[in-house]
Amino acid sequence: MPRKKLWPTLLALSAALALTGCGSAAAPSFSHPAAAPAASGGAKTVVYRSSLPLSTVAANLQAGLKKAGWLVPQQFDVETHLAKVVKVPPSYLMDVVPPRTVGAIVAADPAAGLAFPLRVYLYRQGGVTYASYLEPSSVLARWASHIPDLSSLTKSLDTELAGMVAAATHGTTVTAPEASTPGQKVQTQSLAAGVHTQQAVAKLLTQITANHWGLNNQHSLATLLAPTGVKVPTGYYVEAFNAKLAGQVMNANLPAGIEIPLRFYFYRQGGKLYLSYLEPSTIFARYHDATLDRLSQKMNAVVSNVAASTAAGMSAAKAAGGVGCG
Hints:
The chain has 11 helices and 12 strands.
């Protein structure tokens, strides 16, 4: 599936505005993230090390995903797309979707759609190619009490994704130590009854621009999955970021590039429309990196402002955080 060419929008916004609000990057200090236990609501990173060129691993993975029937709604060369704004190491990002599993999970609990698409991140560091992703079972664990068959569904995802990445890299896994950091926190806004999803999305996009960020990608899950014959009742995600800030994150800690862009997710449940997102500071906490901690606090301010401004005037009440940190 051809990807939407939306990063130029992000680049143009950042370059034209010459944003400096997130400070300058510290000297590069690359390290793999510690993986938080799934039981705490944290996400576990799986990393494969490969001797193959980055482009070869990307091509191999694309072929494997296509053969397995997975969708790739977005894929891009991060280094090339950010080049006009900031220099970053060679890296490549893919959003990936297993249609039938997503359909089953979202049908059981629409809020769990926040976890999709899954993301695979390729990068070069020290002359070596790495392929990383967040283990699906750890990302989705927070919804275990809401989805009876979640364990079997996510176990299958873990196995399938690991197999495709292993085949693409011809490599071996890099073990990341367990961390005692808290899990990622979901923030949720409840919008007033009668608000249409497209109306809310339009307002969100306006607020993203107003906060000097750029649109990276957007999709209705129903539209995305329709060609596969899978139907879902709800779900619309928007991914956004700031190109200069993306460079600061990646130049401070290259493996953390998997966390960007950030995602906003709309879904309907019980007749109401909700807007949810992961709190940035809880996303980046597991890297134990002072620069990322500082940058993520600034991200918190932007993301919460975008969400609150979107809900303003159409908000019924702020939800109590949706499903918490496990």
